[in-house]
Amino acid sequence: MKITTIGLDLAKNVFQIHGVNGHGKVVLQKQLSRDRMAVFFAKLPPCLIGLEACGGAHYWARKLEGFGHTVKLMAPQFVKPYVKTNKNDAADGRRAR
């Protein structure tokens, strides 16, 4: 299970993670609390992480890059075209990748 790309939806306390392998197959769907986030990504091999840009995204981008990951921030107006159904945190994680 080699995760190559992760879409991450940030929230106040619970974050949604959606990871895929090199073939685009979903290999990880997970909720993480704020206090477990750094531990999870510190143990994960380096990969590409996509985030929707917001105030907290810059903090997490710096922290995740410190663990060796490559982080790409996506402006909110560019995330909108990926919305296919109702908005929720799990769907946002899928779109961020």
Task: Report the end-to-end length measured between terminal Cα atoms.
Answer: 17 Å
Would you identify the regions where 5 or more consecutive residues have pLDDT less than 50?
A: none
SSE succession: EEEHEHEHH
Instruction: Give the helix proportion (percent range).
Output: 25-40%
Protein name: Transposase
InterPro entries: Transpos_IS110
Describe the fold and architecture:
- With 97 residues, the protein is of the alpha/beta class.
- The protein has one domain.
- Helices cover 35% and strands 31% of the residues.
- The chain has four helices and five strands; from the N terminus they run E-E-E-H-E-H-E-H-H.
- It has helices at residues 34-43, 55-66, 76-79, 89-96, and strands spanning 5-9, 14-20, 26-33, 48-52, 70-74.
- Strands 3-2-1-4-5 form a five-stranded mixed β-sheet.
- The protein is globular.
- The relative contact order is 0.24.
- The model has no long low-confidence stretch (mean pLDDT 86).
- This is Transposase.
- InterPro entries: Transpos_IS110 (IPR047650).
